[in-house]
Amino acid sequence: MQQHDVRVHPSADDLGREDQLAWKIARVATDPVEIEPQVTDMVINRVIDNAAVAAASLGRSPVVAARGQALAHAASANGAGATVFGEPMSTRTSPEWAAWVNGVAVRELDFHDTFLAADYSHPGDNIPPIIAVAQHLAAARRLSGRDLVRGIATGYEIQVDLVKAICLHKHKIDHVAHLGPSAAAGIGTLLGLDEETIFQAVGQALHTTTATRQSRKGEISTWKAHAPAFAGKMAVEAVDRAMRGQTSPVPVYEGEDGVIAWMLDGPGARYTVPLPGPGEPKRAILDTYTKEHSAEYQAQAWIDLARKLHFEHPALVVEPSRIAEIVLHTSHHTHVVIGSGAGDPQKYDPAASRETLDHSIPYIFTVALQDGGWHHVESYAPERAARPDTVELWQKVTTVEDPEWTRRYHSRDVAEKAFGGAIVITLDDGTEIRDEIAVADAHPLGARPFGREQYVRKFRALAGDVLDSSEIERFLEVAQRLPDLRPAELPELTIIAPHGSLLPAPVGLF
């Protein structure tokens, strides 16, 4: 990897194109390097993973509303249109609207892949906009499954590299600000665009996708699922504008009135951004990890530990009143984002929204401890959250930051990087139960790492109550042939719900 120094420059410096981060991203996107077999296999896994969580969310209100918006827009000119999750394959919409609705479906349950470093990310959010453009232009540009794999690999590479280097959340900027540029770059690779066009698209995508983190704070709303879908939609539109010769703010990162100077670390900031050098494989997707449980990623290991304690210490479940307090010693990020360090009383509110409970480790740990597992619907049900013994125990769970777990969270050594922590359960007689967990069971270094078998099982489990068995098998067969798909087969990368099973969309403006 090449390490690129990125800092603010006054306009008088007249910073050249080749010295700007957006240009360097474009250069990676145009590099014709071949995709390694293990990367291709992981791209397939994540396409399956996205479809799994999208299937489970087809009936949820944000997805229903987004679907209504998308279907109000016909397929645009110069292409055949893109498919919409749940709808028949013949139903098409414009690619930016397909990116929108499919992105919401993928993100709604907070159940697909993740990468955590200097900032947060769900790099699987790159897949919906890239697939949408591939389907729209498959015939016109003779795009194949191989082209799609290359585009997705670029999207993952750019987002992961930005997340490794540039922290957004400490400045209260939402993590999707790294997604707009990565999706634009991925679309550029897919279409074989030149460096100048991708450079302009990356700049426009960044400029239009910077927003505050209030969408993930306090009373968390349905916008949480829409935010990355909006970034994907903006990336598609940015590429369209750039292809038409329109330009973006320059330099978008390094300018004296740019993103770094006024939204991030300020005029004196310096970042070291790693990017593949010429001819170097794009392997960043291999650094990412998916979720076994439908909850914020920093809760994954804690759910696994709670499940373990449920079976090892059944008295905790039978007599929860004996528990005096539960303290989770964890990283700064976990403590202040989903823990008691956030200062959000909503994280302890039995009437809180699903989106809020998804970001409450006190709630998640309590339910997982009592139930010995986690379910993407039942664990968030209002009656489950309001159960008296759960509410009583929930109020006894707090988090504290532990410097060592914070250090491991930020470590660049994959062998010691950790997203869990240590637990101390104190009983009413002073007895303490102690344990710890570093990574989730499904993590590549966890107790039960996910491979193709687990991704397929997750798809079958989540789609089983939503799709016909024949549709489940059809999709799995197509997805696992991804790199060999012909242009006419790319629209088959969708999931089709049984006729009449989708809820009608509420009436809006369109």
From TrEMBL:
Keywords: Lyase
Recorded family membership: Belongs to the PrpD family.
E.C. number: 4.2.1.79
Sequence ranges assigned to domain MmgE/PrpD C-terminal in this UniProt record: 293-482
Protein name stated in the entry: 2-methylcitrate dehydratase
Assembly and oligomerization: Monomer.
Single GO MF descriptor: 2-methylcitrate dehydratase activity
Record-annotated MmgE/PrpD N-terminal domain positions: 20-270
Superkingdom: Bacteria
Reaction equation(s) it catalyzes: (2S,3S)-2-methylcitrate = 2-methyl-cis-aconitate + H2O
